[in-house]
Specification:
395 residues, 13 strands, alpha/beta, Aspartate Aminotransferase, domain 1, Aspartate Aminotransferase, domain 2, 14 helices, 4-stranded antiparallel sheet, binds pyridoxal-5'-phosphate, 2 domains
């Protein structure tokens, strides 16, 4: 007998992937230009030129045996030093290389962090709506996902957060800019959340860790600020990835950064190294560690996302749809005109619009629209959105 739990997980797959695969089959049937696939969060803009330059210079300047060889388990000292320096410079936090553990993207950063922190049966709080894989990652670490209700802006409801903060809670994951809502938590909200966590940590006599999952940090619109959480809370673990900022999701590169002022940081870092070891996430891809070291301050050209966001927001509200105004990431969270988001998804599908129903994000009644697609696709899809709105009598 093999693991029934893993078998179920593998068979079930993710709804986002299932929609994406359906989209590919449908495109083969009726033509790629007739299917409007808004399912996946795969960046549609290329990596900046500085990434290609960093690859070229790594290839020409480094001994290939070293370049393609193993680095030390937590990552090369050169890369970890460059990232720590960048954190010091950008956020004024005294980071050092021994706070940084290089990973194969944010998924690995999260699984390592959860494995390092969570004891069997402990809870991890997750504000709704959330990235569906959190449940898998938390349960794999032996923990239990406890959802925290959202307020009208899709920020965590602070009364619900306080009610859920019991001595059994080991950590909370904050994801801002948020997938799927696009919400960016304000400084004021972060101050209130961290004040609550500090008060409860003292009351319970044990640290409650703040895990900041921030692959969308640089993707912010309308000039909003994304607070750097170690500036507000000592027991913070930042889970970062270059998948979205540098458009490198297939290269699998990111890091875990412990707050330098974390309690027992040396011990937590050793546990992160142990978790990496136990999960087989040692020595992140070495060529892309070299790229990360050279591109700490770079990001892709996001002008396409800015244009797509504006186009969609104005067209969809003109047609009568109700959207959460996204300040960041490349997702639009739109209210389903009927309570059952899955039924709405099915109706949208008849117009070749592939949207993701919100149930797997922990809340019913919405769909997620990934606008990291070509602007052409958005323009071509608008008549279908209009027809869908007409079907519901919205316009
Ligand atoms: N966290 C969030 C909120 C995400 O949206 C994603 C990917 O879409 C990840 C983590 C995983 O990122 P990565 O591709 O770097 O593993």
């Amino acid at each position: 007998m093999i693991s029934q739990e893993m078998l179920a997980l593998g068979r079930q797959g993710s709804i986002i992937r299932a929609i994406f695969e359906y989209g590919n089959r449908r495109k083969a049937e009726i033509g790629a230009d007739k299917v409007f696939d808004f399912s996946l969060g795969n960046p549609s803009v290329p990596a900046p030129e500085s990434v290609a330059e960093a690859i070229r210079s790594a290839l020409s300047e480094t001994d290939p045996v070293v370049l393609h060889g193993y680095t030390s388990a937590p990552g090369s000292m050169q890369t970890r030093s460059a990232i720590a320096a960048s954190i010091r410079e950008r956020f004024g936090v005294p980071s050092t290389p021994d706070c940084i553990y290089m990973t194969a993207g944010a998924a690995a950063s999260l699984t390592i962090t959860l494995k390092a922190l969570v004891l069997p049966g402990e809870e991890v709080l997750v504000p709704v709506p959330y990235f569906p894989e959190y449940r898998t990652f938390i349960e794999n670490a032996g923990g239990k996902l406890t959802p925290v209700a959202p307020d009208g802006r899709m920020f965590p409801d602070l009364a619900d957060l306080e009610a859920k903060l019991t001595p059994n809670v080991k950590a909370i994951i904050l994801n801002s800019p948020n997938n799927p809502s696009g919400a960016v938590y304000s400084v004021e909200v972060i101050e209130r959340i961290t004040a609550l966590l500090k008060r409860k940590s003292v009351e319970f006599g044990a640290p409650i860790y703040l895990i900041s999952d921030e692959p969308y940090r640089e993707l912010v619109w309308s000039g909003v600020e994304v607070p750097y959480l170690p500036c507000y809370y000592d027991n913070t673990v930042v889970c970062y990835s270059y998948s979205k900022s540098l458009s490198l999701p297939g290269e699998r590169i990111g890091y875990v950064a412990l707050s330098p002022t974390m309690e027992d940081r040396g011990e937590v870092f050793a546990a992160v190294c142990g978790a990496g070891r136990s999960l087989g996430f040692v020595c992140a891809p070495s060529l892309f560690q070299a790229v990360a070291a050279k591109c700490t301050a770079e990001h892709s050209d996001f002008s396409v996302y800015i244009e797509n966001r504006a186009l969609l927001l104005s067209a969809l509200s003109e047609y009568g749809f109700d959207c959460i105004r996204p300040d960041g990431a490349f997702y639009l969270f739109m209210k389903s005109p009927e309570p059952d988001a899955y039924a709405f998804y099915e109706k949208a599908k008849r117009h070749e619009l592939l949207l993701v129903p919100s149930d797997d994000f922990g809340v019913g009644g919405y769909v997620r629209i990934s606008y990291c697609v070509s602007t052409e696709q958005i323009k071509r899809s608008l008549p279908a959105f209009r027809k869908l709105a007409q079907e519901y009598g919205l316009c």
